Amino acid sequence: MATFNEKKTCSQRMENFGRFVWNPDTGEVLGRTFVKWVYISLYYAAFYVIMIGIFALSIYSLMKTLSPYEPDYQDQIQSPGVTMRPNPYVDESIQLFYNMFDNTTYSPIVNSLCDFLSVYDAANQTKMMNKDCTNQTNIASILYSSANLKHACQFTREMLGNCSGEHDPTYGYKYGKPCLFIKMNRKIKFTPGNNTTPLVQCTSKSQNLGKVEYYPGNDTYGTIGIQYFPYHGKKMQPNYTNPIVAVKLLNPKLDVEIEVVCKVLGPGIVTDNPHDPYEGKVTFKLKIENKNPLSIKN
Ligand SMILES: *[C@@H]1O[C@H](CO)[C@@H](O)[C@H](O)[C@H]1NC(C)=O
Ligand SMILES: *[C@@H]1O[C@H](CO)[C@@H](O)[C@H](O)[C@H]1NC(C)=O
Ligand SMILES: *[C@@H]1O[C@H](CO)[C@@H](O)[C@H](O)[C@H]1NC(C)=O
Ligand SMILES: *[C@@H]1O[C@H](CO)[C@@H](O)[C@H](O)[C@H]1NC(C)=O
Ligand SMILES: *[C@@H]1O[C@H](CO)[C@@H](O)[C@H](O)[C@H]1NC(C)=O
Ligand SMILES: *[C@@H]1O[C@H](CO)[C@@H](O)[C@H](O)[C@H]1NC(C)=O
Ligand SMILES: *[C@@H]1O[C@H](CO)[C@@H](O)[C@H](O)[C@H]1NC(C)=O
């Protein structure tokens, strides 16, 4: 304590500091002998190498668990959502309203359908090297491209029958017999229950909906071929095109609003989730007017 309070001259302080940096009596440098310095350096070097090693190892093992072929988090709904084209979304509901007499009310719809369906042109499907899977028993071998790359099954316009746009470029809108296209959203690795082809059916509580025809399908159900499942993801299957079902309304009642629900039916496909109205089904309102705008004016 006494020495602490002792007043030192400046030269004494300098000398003390000099001894601290290099003490010729003990051979210490900065308070430690050379050998001690070597040891402490080795200790810290080893310490940091191990820390970096642990960090690198944890990053590496994290990256290993993330597959580039699948999203890391998938939503918890059991079955894919269902959407419809055209998709005129108004006031939180889908309202397909148009006037047969006034082509300006439906030509935007028809144009959007043309765009939507262009990917199904046979030429586009061929260009994308999608394979014809009809009547094939070993789909996996047809779709094989390389270990991490798969082709997809073709879905072509011809499968849409009278809704292909080939004979009627207005997809029936002009004649009050509109075509709708039902699509199940992609869900990686989703296969319908029991390998059963999912069916599509559109119904209404009222009789006004009239007769319906499905392509591919018949006059009761549309079919989403099982060969299109499962989808392997964008990276592994870059050219996958969604199968769709065309729904042709043959004689819907005109000038009334009709509420229609189109469901995808099959084992394991949920259509009654109160929290997600689009899980397994799509609901919309339809109203086809048949009023000559000119006659209204007169
Ligand atoms: C609508 O019909 C009129 C008369 O038939 C025609 O001149 C016009 O080009 C059509 N418009 C569209 C967008 O198809
Ligand atoms: C499909 O082919 C047409 C021409 O045949 C082209 O205009 C269109 O962009 C193609 N669509 C896609 C999605 O490749
Ligand atoms: C996807 O389509 C492109 C052409 O659009 C083609 O070059 C490519 O080979 C296709 N990939 C597969 C896996 O079929
Ligand atoms: C698939 O098989 C059915 C009957 O087995 C036949 O009618 C149909 O033409 C075949 N389709 C193709 C594309 O070969
Ligand atoms: C398509 O429509 C025509 C009448 O417009 C009808 O004769 C034919 O049977 C329909 N095709 C199919 C596959 O239902
Ligand atoms: C329509 O298709 C469904 C599903 O493929 C089938 O179960 C049903 O028997 C068919 N109905 C008629 C009338 O062909
Ligand atoms: C699959 O079929 C079996 C027997 O036919 C049935 O018990 C099971 O519930 C089915 N699975 C689904 C998801 O419907």
Automatic annotation (TrEMBL):
Any one GO CC term of this protein is: sodium:potassium-exchanging ATPase complex
Where in the cell does this protein reside? Apical cell membrane; Membrane
Keywords for this protein: Cell adhesion, Cell membrane, Disulfide bond, Glycoprotein, Hydrogen ion transport, Ion transport, Membrane, Potassium, Potassium transport, Signal-anchor, Transmembrane, Transmembrane helix, Transport
Q: What does this protein do?
A: The beta subunit of the gastric H(+)/K(+) ATPase pump which transports H(+) ions in exchange for K(+) ions across the apical membrane of parietal cells. Plays a structural and regulatory role in the assembly and membrane targeting of a functionally active pump. Within a transport cycle, the transfer of a H(+) ion across the membrane is coupled to ATP hydrolysis and is associated with a transient phosphorylation of the alpha subunit that shifts the pump conformation from inward-facing (E1) to outward-facing state (E2).
In its UniProt entry, the species of origin is given as Hymenochirus boettgeri
Q: Which family does it belong to?
A: Belongs to the X(+)/potassium ATPases subunit beta family.
- Name of protein: Sodium/potassium-transporting ATPase subunit beta
A Gene Ontology biological process in which this protein takes part is: intracellular potassium ion homeostasis
Keyword Ion transport included in the entry's annotation: yes
Topology in the lipid bilayer is annotated as:
Single-pass type II membrane protein
Cite the Pfam families for this sequence.
Answer: Na_K-ATPase (PF00287)
**UniProt-recorded Gene Ontology molecular function terms:** ATPase activator activity
Transmembrane stretches, start-end? 37-60
The annotated subunit structure for this chain is:
The ATPase pump is composed of two subunits: alpha (catalytic) and beta (regulatory). Interacts with alpha subunit ATP12A; this interaction is required for the formation of a functionally active pump and targeting at the plasma membrane. Interacts (via N-terminus) with alpha subunit ATP4A (via the P-domain).
Main location (coarse class): membrane
Among InterPro entries, the record links this protein to: Na/K_ATPase_sub_beta, Na/K_ATPase_sub_beta_sf
